[in-house]
Amino acid sequence: MTFPERAIGIKVSEAGWLSTFQDLGRENSEFMGVPCGGAADQHSAAAANILVGNSRKATCLEIMGGRFAFTATHDVMCAVTGVPAEVTVNGDPVAMWEPLCIPAGARVVIAKASGGMRNYLAFSGELETARFMGSAAPESRMGFPQQLAPGQILTLHSRYRGFTHPFLTQPLFQLPVPVPDFSPDVWTIDVVEGPETDRTPGIRKLLSSSNYTVGAKSNHVGLRLDGPVVHPEGLGEIVSHGVPIGAFEIPHGDELIILGRSRTLTAGYPIVAVAAKASLSMLGQASPGRKMTFRWISNVQAVEQYREQQRLLAHLEGRVHALFAAVGLPVSTSSAAAPSQSPAAA
Amino acid sequence: MTTHTAPAERLRHPPELEAEPFGDSALMLRVKNDDADFRRAAGSRLRDVLLEVRPYGVLDIVAGVESLLVEFDCLAVTHEQLAQTIRLAVAGNALEPGAASASQSLFVIPMVASEEFSPDLPGVAEELGLSPEAVLRKFQSSVLTINLLAAAMAPMMGGVQFPGQVSRCVEPRTNVEPGSVMVAGTNAIIQPFPGPSGWKVIGRTPLTICDIREDPATSYKPGDSVRFEVVPEREWARLEGQFLRASDGGASLSAGASPKAGSEGANSDLP
Questions:
Q1: What dihedral do alpha carbons A49, A51, A54, A57 form, nearest 10°?
Q2: Is the pLDDT at A274 greater than 80, yes or no?
């Protein structure tokens, strides 16, 4: 059964340390000088939306630290992904990485995140928000912070009308969810060679045999790592050029920087390695104090890893769609991004 | 690691392109030529060709001073396949100087020079062996070309008619006010939003050059021309905060000064 969309109010009573609207980022913006931005942990953000039957690119919420709490004026279906956290509905613990059916007026709390930076909260339907270059993702430098404040009421347009079952109040779905393992004390991040790897003697052994610690000045622009570095030899001045997400830069000091999705797009520092695409979501969760080491892989292996990561998400998406269709839960009909809207609409 | 160039002598002598993997999902393109001006010009035409052709798998492009970083979907194409497609696209769309590119607009941008707004003007004058007034005269008489949009859509422009190169600040500033007009080498840039910069600040425009409430957020695009016009400080209040538009589009000082045809609807190709 399908219902028409209705507007639902979601009152954010506690907004954590920093919570924003978020999505997978801008497309076709970097040639205009605007970094793609978007969820630092793309895997968790995509999975949250998939778990509630949305397009992966739908607007969700990114929650960093502290306590986040909301109540909705009507029944809503949501999912919480990202690093392990305590999620409760009216005080009762519920699972992450699962669709949650929340009754109208119930208080949902997400707190005590551990092992990383970010949680993602997606709702079945479309969250109303301003967009910049087609995306809800923050671009704070250009005056698009997208930050949520305590007391703020969000509007959700949803076709969800509650879930009823003869015996159960929560759907006990068995979904094949690819949950990342955030538990190791030292994360191993896969890297491929960069343009200056061969000009930097010893960097291969150093990166794969040392532990690095994420520094306090890290953010969505880049992770700053403490640990041993070596500088390239015999390089002249590098003319400023575009830099990919995940580039390992060694500036003049003894610091290693891994560029994030909101990086400054051009730089002239040597790039001694580049994180494999399949490892970027893990990097997006690294918080200050996090220890990590690196493993060199080939470009072919890196592509295979990413293909497998995407295959698991597509598999989950297929299962969610089949299941939701069978039990009458709404599924987003388009997998395309929502139409772009001027930020002035906010 | 560099992928090989296909034999292409019969294909209208396209310039040699170096294509280097930058991670599993990006390819760095450089035009091989001894002349830096040629590399820059060919690089900017290469960008136009790629935006026009949109090779399969390409997600986005980042323009550098003499290079292009092409970001692609690694599940759709490999480095080698994409490099080959790009070389074919280049062979079919000559990168020779004078090749057709998108329609261009002219922007005449007012700027104020003062002790407060031009902290580096005396230093730049000394470095170039000119008086501060002569530096501003040279600057105003230059018709600049926007080579690329740098961080936060900052227009990076080439073609300043200085007699020499301007060096960067020894200690970059941690914050430069929006609207600041800056030079380095023979390039100029305008700071659209507060942020760090190591370029030399020689003036400030009262106009807002980038506003995310506008759609698109800037009126200018790579390939457009820019001329600066130093105006008296008393003009500041009248112009402050106005959104920069092409000189045939309204807000600037000398209306109808565009020497280039076809600037009507010049921005329609922006997303």
A1: 30
A2: yes
Phi/psi-derived region of residue A172, left when phi > 0, alpha when psi is between -120 and 50, beta in every other case: beta
Q: Taking CB atoms and an 8 Å limit, are A33 and B148 in contact across chains?
A: yes
In chain B, where the domains are located: 16-92, 106-239
Element (H, E) at A164: none
Residue B245: predicted pLDDT: 95
Pick A31's closest partner by Cβ from B62, B65, B210: B62
CATH topology for A186-302 is Cyclophilin (2.40.100)
Mean pLDDT of the A204-223 span = 94
Nearest beta carbon to residue B151 from set A33, A143, A193: A33
Task: Please name the residues in contact with B137: beta carbons below 8 A apart, sequence gap of 6 or more.
Answer: none
Chain A residues in contact with B195 by the CB 8 A cut-off are: 141
**In chain B, which residues have their Cβ closer than 8 Å to the Cβ of A274?**
22-24, 26
Q: What is the least distance, in Å, from the CA of B249 to any CA of chain A?
A: 21
pLDDT tens-digit map of A251-265: 877 889 999 999 989
Element (H, E) at B21: strand B16-21
Tens of pLDDT along A318-328? 999 999 998 88
Give the mean model confidence (pLDDT) for residues A52-59: 97
Name the region of A134 (left: φ>0; alpha: ψ -120 to 50; beta: rest). left
d(CA B25, nearest CA chain A) in Å: 7
Average model confidence (pLDDT) for chain A? 92
Q: What tokens were used for A159?
A: 């076709």
- Residue B64 contacts A, CB cutoff 8 Å: yes
* C-beta of residue A65 within 8 angstroms of C-beta of residue A32: no
pLDDT of A170 higher than 70: no
Write down the pLDDT at residue B23. 98
Task: Tell me if B257 sits within 8 A of B169, measured CB to CB.
Answer: no
Selected from 3.30.1360.40, 3.40.50.12780, 3.30.2350.10, 3.40.630.30, the CATH number assigned to the domain covering B16-92 reads 3.30.1360.40
How far, in Å, CA of A59 to CA of B198, rounded? 37
Q: For the domain B106-239, what is the CATH superfamily, name and number? A: Cyclophilin-like (2.40.100.10)
